[in-house]
């Protein structure tokens, strides 16, 4: 089970969600989005909390660690719900001196409980991203082909290969066979 919250809808389009226990935490770890930010109470067993940008603490004086979802590392030797980090420099810690009940109460009023198919959601986003990349690649190839054809056309225009084509040339003998005098030909030329 995953809990979803809406925090200050007027502040922007983002969702806060968290797993009920370590098993849901595993699913959230496995199928997060790159834009998700992960939060956890440091050195204590607690829910993993995520903020999804578009795109619960009951103890005082705690440290909350957070990092982008992409920085979470899960190895086979880790316990259920346990995570590590690929890059510790991307992990931030914030000290929470005192629980602010107004914020917690406001969030609890927006709480919605769902059983999402996290894998299907992740696959849908991946499919949409692949389709977008494929479309961009197709457009790029089309533009490159149009550029190539335009360059060939411009090269043909600047080329001398059509200047001295035998079919388009006339010799003095051909000119003499038209029975025009030299003066008539000069007049035609001018």
Automatic annotation (TrEMBL):
Q: NFACT RNA-binding domain: which residues?
A: 1-58
Looking at the Swiss-Prot or TrEMBL record, what is one Pfam family this protein matches?
A: NFACT-R_1
InterPro entries according to UniProt? Jlp2/Ccd25, NFACT_RNA-bd
Q: Where is this region: Disordered?
A: 160-190
**PANTHER family assigned to the protein according to its UniProt record, in alphabetical order:** COILED-COIL DOMAIN-CONTAINING PROTEIN 25 (PTHR13049:SF2), DUF814-RELATED (PTHR13049)
Stated family: Belongs to the CCDC25 family.
Protein name (record)? NFACT RNA-binding domain-containing protein
Recorded source organism is: Escallonia rubra
Q: Which taxonomic lineage is given here?
A: Eukaryota, Viridiplantae, Streptophyta, Embryophyta, Tracheophyta
